[in-house]
Amino acid sequence: MTAVTARAHTNIALVKYWGKADTDLIIPQTSSLSLTLDQFYTDTTVAFDATLTTDTVTLDDTRLSTTASQKVHRFLDLVRQRSGETRFASVTSTNHVPTAAGLASSASAFAALAGAASRAAGLDLSRADLSRLARRGSGSATRSIFGGFVEWQAGHDDQTSVAVPFQEHVDWPIAMVALLLDPHHKKISSRQGMQSSVTTSPYYPAWKQVVAADLAAIKPAILAQDFTATGEILEANAMRMHALTLSANPPYSYFNGDTLTAMQTVRHLREAGVASYYTLDAGPNLKVFCQTPDLPAVTTQLAAQFGANRVVVAHPGPGIQFL
Ligand code: DP6
Fold first, then answer.
1. Quick one: what percent of the chain has pLDDT higher than 70?
2. Residues of the chain with CATH 3.30.230.10
3. Quick one: fold of 4-170?
4. What is the DSSP string of 151-195?
C-alpha cells in the first residue's frame, strides 16, 4: 500500500463557468478562464488498503459520513475503473485557508484528490489527463491542475473538455484580496444553482454570448497586462452570472447585505483613484482584484469596514504538486 499526497490550490474564475451541457461527465456549456491563487489550497493523501471494507474520508480531522462523502466514493470508483485497482481507499484531506472561514473549495479538493488517488492507484497521468479526471469531481477543479491563468476549454466530450494553461507564470504585480463575509455553507450549491439557471433563466442564451465575448476580450487584456480592461471584464462577467440567479425560477441570490455594501466600497475606492474590481462565486464573499501598489489602500479600507480578520491577500499560485 503506497500513500500519495498531492497539493492543489483554489482558483477564482474571471470569466465564469455557470452551467453544464452534460451533468454526468461535467461538460460545461461554455469555456471559462481563471486565476489559481497561492493562499488557499488542499492537501490530500490517498492510500488503497486491502484491509478496508469501505472508502474512508477524513476532512480536517473529522471522519465524514457515507452520505457526506458520496461524491468522493463515486470519484474513487472512476479511478478504480481506470486503473484496475480493486481495494478501498483511505482519503485524508486538509484545507489550508488562513482563517477558518468559507473558502474551502471543491476545486482544490477534487484537483488534489485526482492527483493523489490516480497515483496511489498506479496511474501516471499527464496534467491534461489529471485535468480531465478532476473535472469529473467538480467542474472548477479541472482548472486547479494548472497555475496562473488557466482556460477550461468547454469541448464536447470527456477528451476535449479540459483545462489548458493560458499563462502559467504570471509576471504581473496583481493581487486578489479575499473578503470573507459569511463562513456558512451555501444553501443552494453551485451544482443546483447553475442547473436551475440553465433550465429556467430566459437570459441563459445571452450568457453564452457574454462568455464568448468576455473570453475573446480578456485574453489579450491579460497578455497586455491591461489592468483596467481585465478588471472591467471580470467584474461585469461576475455580475452577469449573478443575474442568472435573479432571473431563474424560482429566483435566488448568493448576495447578502454585506456583499452589496462591499461592492459599493470597491466602487468608492475606484472613484477615489484606487483601481480595484470585484468578482464573486456562488456565495457572498468578494474577491477584489487590484495591483500590488494599491494593496495597502484596498486592505486598509476593507479591514476598517469589515474587520482585519476577514481580509486575506492572495497572489497568483502554482499548479498541482506531489508532496
Ligand atoms: C461560480 O465547479 O463548484 O465558482 O461542477 O457542479 O462541482 P460543479 O460546480 P463548481 O462550480 C463553480 C462555479 C463558480 C464559477 C467558476 O468557478 O467558474
1. 98
2. 4-170
3. Ribosomal Protein S5; domain 2 (3.30.230)
4. EEE--SSTTT-EEEEEESS--S-EEEEEE----SPPSS-HHHHHH
Residues of the chain with CATH 3.30.70.890: 174-314
In the reported structure, the alpha carbon of residue 300 is separated from the centroid of ligand 1 by a whole-number distance in angstroms of 30
Query: From the CB of 106, is ligand 1 less than 6 Å away?
Result: yes
One-letter amino acid for residue 186 of the chain: K
Lowest mean pLDDT among 2-6, 104-108, 137-141, 231-235: 104-108
pLDDT tens string 273-314? 999 999 999 999 999 999 999 999 999 999 999 999 999 999
Name the pTM for this structure.
0.97
Bond from prior residue into 250 cis (ω within 30 degrees of 0): yes
Does the C-beta of 142 come closer than 6 Å to ligand 1?
A: no
**Across 115-126, average pLDDT:** 98
Which CATH code of 3.30.70.890, 3.40.50.300, 3.10.450.50, 3.40.1710.10 fits the domain covering 174-314?
Answer: 3.30.70.890
- What the block records as the C-alpha cell of 286 is 468578494
The separation between the first and the last C-alpha atoms of the chain, rounded to the nearest angstrom, is 17
Dist CA 252 CA 271 (whole Å): 30
- Which pLDDT does position 4 carry in this prediction? 98
Q: Is the CB of 96 under 6 A from ligand 1?
A: no
**Cα(288)–Cα(270) distance, rounded to whole angstroms?**
11
